[in-house]
């Protein structure tokens, strides 16, 4: 019997489609997940809370926050059920991505910031998709450097400590 590939549903505004597509391509490579990109784009009149409710048909939901998608003001009463309570009750994994200088609600976690260092944020998101927490390990700087050498650049990399390579393999 063949296992089904887990699905990830990104929720995003139409102008953020290139960001969502790049995120989807990055996560699909090596994370054994199918990204439902087409379904995730908000239609005129929709907001992120509505789209997140629709997204819960997938195994994982990623809400992309940007100036294009985040209404101002956005009272907690309009998003709390859809983005916090309902996913927790239904045991649907949900994460939040900050795409630019917008200010999403800080209580929403985990949050991955693509506005400063998109590669680092994407790698943390991929770790979360694979079932991790997305939190940096103790030797974060060394592991991140090794990850860049292996994943982001062609060629090979060596390290002096086998424990560092072992920690990288587990992240």
Describe the structure.
The protein is α/β, with parallel strands linked by helices and 171 residues long. Helix content is 44%, strand content 13%. The chain has seven helices and five strands; from the N terminus they run βαβααβαββααα. Strands 2-1-3-4-5 form a five-stranded parallel sheet, sandwiched between helices. Helix 1 (17-31) crosses helix 5 and helix 6 packs across helix 7. The longest helix has 15 residues, at 17-31. The radius of gyration is 17 Å and the shape is globular. The model has no long low-confidence stretch (mean pLDDT 85).
Supply the key terms.
7 helices; globular
Summarize the structure.
The chain is an alpha/beta fold.
How confident overall, as mean pLDDT?
85
Major sheet details:
5 strands, parallel
Give the percentage of residues in beta strands. 5-15%
In the predicted model, the low-confidence regions spanning at least 5 consecutive residues are none
What count of helical segments does DSSP give?
7
Percent in helix: 40-55%
Distance N to C terminus: 28 Å
Counted beta strands: 5
SSE-based structural type: alpha/beta
- In order across it, which strands form the biggest sheet? 2-1-3-4-5
Order of H and E elements: EHEHHEHEEHHH
What is the overall silhouette? globular
Radius of gyration: 17 Å
């Amino acid at each position: 019997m063949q296992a089904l590939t887990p699905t990830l549903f990104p929720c995003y505004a139409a102008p953020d489609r290139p960001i969502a597509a790049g995120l989807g391509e990055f996560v699909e490579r090596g994370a054994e997940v199918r990204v439902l990109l087409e379904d995730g784009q908000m239609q005129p009149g929709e907001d992120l809370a509505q789209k997140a409710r629709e997204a819960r048909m997938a195994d994982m939901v990623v809400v992309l926050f940007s100036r294009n998608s985040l209404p101002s003001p956005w009272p907690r009463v309009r998003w709390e059920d859809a983005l916090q309570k309902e996913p927790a009750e239904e045991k649907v994994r949900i994460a939040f991505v900050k795409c630019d200088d917008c200010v999403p609600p800080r209580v929403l976690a985990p949050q991955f910031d693509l506005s400063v260092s998109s590669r680092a944020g994407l790698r943390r998101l991929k770790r979360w998709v694979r079932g991790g927490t997305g939190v940096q390990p103790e030797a974060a700087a060394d592991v991140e450097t090794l990850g860049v050498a292996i994943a982001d650049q062609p060629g090979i990399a060596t390290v002096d400590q086998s424990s560092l390579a072992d920690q990288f393999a587990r992240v």
